[in-house]
Specification:
Rossmann fold; 29% helix; alpha/beta; Quinone Oxidoreductase, Chain A, domain 1; 7-stranded mixed beta sheet; 2 domains; 332 residues
Length: 332
C-alpha cells in the first residue's frame, strides 16, 4: 500500500521537537533600579525528580528582592535573566518522579531557597513545600513564609526567646516586624516595638505591650534590660540597641552582623541571621494562623505585571505589613 503524498509531506514536521512551554514572568536582564524589571514571556520550568511544579497564585515582595535587584550583593552576570522573589502560594500543577506527599490540586506555600518566583509557575523541592492554611486566601498566604520564618528563626532559633522574657523589636510595623510582635506574644514574652507615630496603633493591635515612636523618643530610654533585641535596621540603631540589653542579652540582626568585640566587652551575645527553608517551622506558623494567634497584614496587592510599582513601594520603607504580587485573581 502506497503512502499518500500529503502524508509524506508532513513527515518532517512529525519529528520536530515541540515548542518549549512558556509562562509570563517578571525578569531582570541587568542590575539597577526598578526599571530593569520586565514583564515578559519566559521558559516554563518542568519538575525534576523530587520536585513539584506549582502554579503560583501570589508572591510576597520583600526588601531582599530590591536589594538583589540593585546589586547590593554579588552581581554575577551568569544568573541573568533573573526572576526575583522568595515566598509564594499556589496550587500543585504536577509532580516529578519520587514525589510522595503532594498531588495536583493541593494548595501550598513555600519559602524558596533560590530566588526564582515572580512568574506563573515555579518548581520546588518537595522537602521545601508545605500545605497552605485553609483559613486564609492565597494573597495573605504569600506574605507569610519568608517574613514569618525570618522572625521565628531570629527570635527563637538564634536568640532563644522564652516565655516571661522581654524583647525589643525594631520596625515593628514592617513585614518581619509585624510577625515578630505576634510570635513573641504567642510565646508569652513582653514586647517593646518601634515605629513612626502613625503606626503605633497598629503595633498595639498586633499585641505590643510598649510602643515607641522612634522619631520623638529615644528607644534606649524606654526599653531597658531587654533579654532580646531584633534589629532590622543596622547602623546607628543597632549600635544604640546594645544599651537596651541586660547582661547576657542577645542582639539578633537580619541586616548586619553585630560587632563581636563590642558584644564581649559589654557581656552580651549576638549574631546575624539568614533565613532558611524549614517546613516544620512553617507548619507551626500555619497552625498559629489557623488558631487565630497570627495574621498576615497585606497593605498592598499589586498585579504581577506591575511588579515595578511593588518594588518602589517596598523601597519607600514605610509599608504596614506586607506587599504581595497577585498572579492569579482569587475569585473566592
Amino acid at each position: 500500500m502506497k503512502t499518500p503524498l500529503a502524508l509524506l509531506a508532513l513527515l518532517p514536521f512529525a519529528f520536530q521537537d515541540k515548542p518549549a512551554a512558556t509562562m509570563k514572568a517578571v525578569r531582570m536582564h541587568d542590575y539597577g533600579k526598578a526599571d530593569v524589571l520586565v514583564y515578559e514571556d519566559a521558559p516554563r520550568p518542568e519538575p525534576k525528580s523530587g520536585e513539584v511544579l506549582v502554579r503560583i497564585h501570589a508572591a510576597g515582595v520583600n526588601p531582599i528582592d530590591w536589594k538583589v535587584r540593585e546589586g547590593m550583593f554579588a552581581k554575577p552576570k551568569s544568573r541573568l535573566p533573573l526572576i526575583l522573589g522568595g515566598e509564594i502560594s499556589g496550587v500543585v500543577e504536577s509532580c516529578g518522579a519520587d514525589v510522595k506527599g503532594f498531588k495536583p490540586g493541593d494548595e501550598v506555600w513555600s519559602l524558596l531557597s533560590l530566588l526564582r518566583s515572580g512568574g506563573e509557575f515555579t518548581t520546588i523541592p518537595e522537602s521545601e513545600l508545605a500545605r497552605k492554611p485553609k483559613s486564609i486566601d492565597f494573597v495573605h498566604a504569600a506574605g507569610v513564609p519568608l517574613a514569618a520564618l525570618t522572625a521565628y528563626q531570629a527570635l527563637f532559633d538564634k536568640a532563644g526567646l522564652k516565655e516571661g522574657q522581654s524583647v525589643l523589636i525594631h520596625a515593628g510595623a514592617g513585614g518581619v516586624g509585624h510577625f515578630a510582635i505576634q510570635l513573641a506574644k504567642a510565646k508569652g514574652a513582653k514586647v517593646y516595638a518601634t515605629a513612626s507615630e502613625n503606626h503605633l496603633a497598629f503595633l498595639k493591635e498586633l499585641g505590643a505591650d510598649v510602643t515607641i515612636d522612634y522619631k520623638t523618643q529615644k528607644f534606649e530610654d524606654v526599653a531597658k534590660d531587654m533579654d532580646v533585641v531584633l534589629d532590622s535596621i543596622g547602623g546607628e540603631t543597632q549600635a544604640r540597641s546594645l544599651g537596651c540589653l541586660k547582661k547576657g542579652g542577645y542582639l539578633v540582626s537580619i541586616v548586619a552582623p553585630p560587632d563581636q568585640k563590642k558584644l564581649e566587652e559589654l557581656g552580651l551575645k549576638g549574631s546575624i541571621m539568614l533565613v532558611t527553608p524549614n517546613v516544620k517551622e512553617l507548619d507551626e506558623i500555619g497552625a498559629l494562623i489557623e488558631a487565630k494567634k497570627l495574621k498576615c497584614v497585606v497593605s498592598e496587592t499589586v498585579p504581577l505585571a506591575e511588579a515595578k510599582r511593588a518594588h518602589e513601594l517596598s523601597e519607600g520603607g514605610h509599608t504596614q505589613g506586607k506587599i504581595v504580587l497577585e498572579v492569579v485573581k482569587d475569585m473566592r
